[in-house]
Amino acid sequence: MLTTQRKKLLLARLAAEGQLVAKALAQELGTSEDTIRRDLRDLAAEGLLQRVHGGALPASAAMGDLAVREQVSTADKVALGRFGASLVEPGQVVILDGGTTALQVARHLAPGLRATVVTHSPTVAIELAQHAGVEILLLGGRLFRHSMVNVGADVIAAASRLRADLFFLGVTGVHPDAGLSTGDAEEAAVKRALHARAAETVVLASPEKLMAASPFVVAALPEISLLAVARETPARVTRALLAGGVQLRKV
């Protein structure tokens, strides 16, 4: 089998089954594991899959910059944002991550809400400014333009001085085995620091993030308090996620 044919087969199998196991594929195709691993490396370099130990998972379609992500799953993000906003209670200290779904949470906070919201996203902070009763704490650092969030040692140091009730964590990959992941190492470090400072962490995951993986792990699925997904999420996907040990709600 030619290399191009084999790679097309790998991508078709990944789309159909949701994962690839290098050893099993090598046996099936009568080739070496090294050959399969080389194919997977090439496909990962093209952004077509995410390599994991022993094989590969689908690459997250949520890896584009903020402008690109604003065009993806817009109705689902509105519903998820509205649900997230409903979880915020008066007087709470809430950490709100960056990203398009976080913007929807900010937009749907109750008009008279009095609470403190901490964020490392200037974009989210500007949106929160529309809520007169919300005290806004903006964590400063180096601006990571891809996601429009501040990252670096200063953000992590500031996070260590927080004690929050709730953290809305944004990720680009949600998978029962690969966990919660994102595409940048420094951004992942900030997310881990914020997650560690909240009593509860909630992930609002639009469809393109589910059963996909990104390079840098933030947390295992069972470590969060709740995963909210779109109402139309297929049953096979919700079953797989629930098997991963997470509390899940369709909204």
UniProtKB/TrEMBL annotation:
| The entry's keywords | DNA-binding, Repressor, Transcription, Transcription regulation
Question: A GO molecular function for this record?
Answer: DNA-binding transcription factor activity
Name the source's superkingdom: Bacteria
> HTH deoR-type domain: which residues?
3-58
- Cite a single Pfam family from the UniProt record: DeoRC
- This protein is called DeoR/GlpR family DNA-binding transcription regulator
**Native source organism of the sequence:** Scleromatobacter humisilvae
